[in-house]
Amino acid sequence: MEVRGAVRTSARPRLGRILALAAILAVAVTTVCAARRKQQVVWQQSQSPCVQLAVRDKLGTLGAYTTVFRVSAPDGLEYTATKRTVGDGWGKAYFPSDFVRRDKSGQLSEAWLKPGRYSWKAGLSGRQVLSGEFEVEAPRLVHGVHVQSVTTLDPL
Question: Which residues make Cβ contacts (< 8 Å) with residue 124, sequence separation at least 6?
Fold first, then answer.
């Protein structure tokens, strides 16, 4: 206790106010943290049809290499994609998203997936190493996405 003139004061009321303020602050912080944990997740999705073309040096004897993929479309146009691969990893190209073609004026244009039969080739150092074909039927979109409300995310 401290004496100031004729009035006595105590440190206890001041300590009580500090503890009350600390308790209010703790409740406020806990409430804000809980609200952030329950924040709504907003999902977006995208899908598009594509064909994955892939080549691999199974034993990794080449080390690093560059593969040039060429796809010939049903309309006779040819599209190209270039992929760099290391070791025994897969060199993958996705048609049409990775492919472009250069017209006579040098302009690049993107590939589009159209109905018909396609052929493809994969080459290294100007030499064809693999080839194949695929067919695309007329587009028919069956779209189904199921989204559920999620408040917490568990690790996969």
Answer: 62, 65, 66, 67, 68
What amino acid is encoded at 86 in this protein? V
Tell me the two tokens of residue 61.
């004897």
Please name every residue paired with 133 in a beta bridge, in sequence order, or none if there are none: 119
Q: What is the full DSSP assignment across 61-109?
A: TT-EEEEEEEEE-TTS-EEEEEEEEETT-EEEEEETTT-EEE-TTS-EE
Q: Tens digit of pLDDT for each residue in 30-65? A: 776 666 666 777 888 877 788 999 999 999 999 999
Do 28 and 96 lie in one domain? The reply is no
For residues 28 and 49, give the distance between their C-alpha atoms in angstroms, rounded to a whole number.
49
Q: How far apart are CA 18 and CA 14, in angstroms?
A: 6
Nearest of 141, 2, 127 to residue 67 by alpha carbon: 127
**In this structure, what token pair is assigned to residue 151?**
């408040």
In a domain, 153, yes or no: no
**What range does the domain containing 17 cover?**
11-37
- The partner residues of 131 in beta bridges, in order of sequence, read 121
Q: Are residues 57 and 124 in the same domain?
A: yes
